[in-house]
Amino acid sequence: MAFTWGSALRITLLILLVAAVVTACFTLPVEKILKDFLTWVDQDLGPWGPLVLAVAYIPLTILAVPASVLTLGGGYLFGLPVGFVADSIGATIGAGAAFLLGRTIGKPFVISKLKDYPQFRSVALAIQRSGFKIVLLLRLVPLLPFNMLNYLLSVTPVPLLEYMLASWIGMMPITLALVYVGTTLKDLSDVTHGWNEFSKTRWAFLIFGLVVSGKLK
């Protein structure tokens, strides 16, 4: 089995990603961090708040962390119009970042996970004929886990721009609904409540998958 600088770089980056996941999951007070982040966005950033909120989607989406806290926070902090725009753009950028990661250094991980989603085979075949429509449908009707879908679609031939546009349009309804719910919340604690209910078992499977995918091809 040949060892190349490219495979060494891929393994190193995957190890760093695993380390980030472990740290975030088991050592950091994530719920407090998210609440402090939203407080900082609200009190200190002024007109830059919506932009920073949108950018924050990138690390959460890459690590397959549900970003609903940010979506609710957008509605709570900025109201429906501004919150929706910031959250919609952020969710699309995050999905694009995960897609690019899956298409490049994360490709071994994605391939290793395909066997867990046998129904995706027919999706991949359909995308070859109509990529935009299939991605749009998958966003509107969540037949597969949202964050994993970003990676699964990365190994299909759908072009990046088609993927981004279809994802942006398809995610609009759920984004709008969550932003609206955020506008009805009375306290910032209501936005982050329930974070700790996120299953650490899911983190364990993600970490295991990343470790396995780091093997040399």
TrEMBL record:
<keyword id="KW-0472">Membrane</keyword>
<feature type="domain" description="VTT">
    <location>
        <begin position="65"/>
        <end position="183"/>
    </location>
</feature>
<protein>
    <recommendedName>
        <fullName>VTT domain-containing protein</fullName>
    </recommendedName>
</protein>
<feature type="transmembrane region" description="Helical">
    <location>
        <begin position="51"/>
        <end position="70"/>
    </location>
</feature>
<keyword id="KW-0812">Transmembrane</keyword>
<keyword id="KW-1133">Transmembrane helix</keyword>
<keyword id="KW-1003">Cell membrane</keyword>
<dbReference type="InterPro" id="IPR015414">
    <property type="entry name" value="TMEM64"/>
</dbReference>
<dbReference type="GO" id="GO:0016020">
    <property type="term" value="C:membrane"/>
</dbReference>
<dbReference type="GO" id="GO:0005886">
    <property type="term" value="C:plasma membrane"/>
</dbReference>
<feature type="transmembrane region" description="Helical">
    <location>
        <begin position="77"/>
        <end position="101"/>
    </location>
</feature>
<feature type="transmembrane region" description="Helical">
    <location>
        <begin position="160"/>
        <end position="181"/>
    </location>
</feature>
<dbReference type="Pfam" id="PF09335">
    <property type="entry name" value="VTT_dom"/>
</dbReference>
<dbReference type="InterPro" id="IPR032816">
    <property type="entry name" value="VTT_dom"/>
</dbReference>
